[in-house]
Amino acid sequence: MSRSRHSLTILALFISASSLFFSGCQTTDDRTEIVSNASTPVQMLEVPVGSYIDLDLPFPPRHNWWVVESGDRPYLQSKVDRSRGRIRLWAMKPGKTEVVCALRNYARVIRKVVVGVEVKP
């Protein structure tokens, strides 16, 4: 393979990897992929009562953190792990809701992620 073709291949791999990193999607082996959208949920998650869902959000930059802005009560109870960018939603009672998570700092909201959750009996 010629040097220029090799460098183009590496550049293409870097661009595709960086686009995945900056798109707001992140998955692990036992977590659900989250897609960012400021106004409507683009994904509907289902969870039975008594179980939980881990929202593995993009790692927050320094001096920023993720919070649950609205939509968790009364169906879900949220616990935020600020250092890792993970939000755990415990299913408390059956119903449908839209959970709004916000990346913020001390001054403002930077980004929002809206996820639809249906808690099954």
In short:
With 121 residues, this protein is α+β, with helices and mostly antiparallel strands. The chain contains one helix and seven strands.
- Give the overall shape: elongated
The total count of strands amounts to 7
Radius of gyration: 17 Å
The H-and-E topology, N to C, reads as: HEEEEEEE
Count helical runs. Answer: 1
Describe the strand arrangement of the main beta sheet, using strand numbers: 1-7-6-3
Percent of residues in helical segments? 10-25%
Rounded average pLDDT: 74
**Distance between the ends:** 58 Å
**What fraction of the residues are assigned to beta strands by DSSP?**
35-45%
Outline the biggest β-sheet. 4 strands, mixed
The chain-level structural class is: alpha+beta
| Sequence stretches where pLDDT stays below 50 over 5 or more residues | 1-34
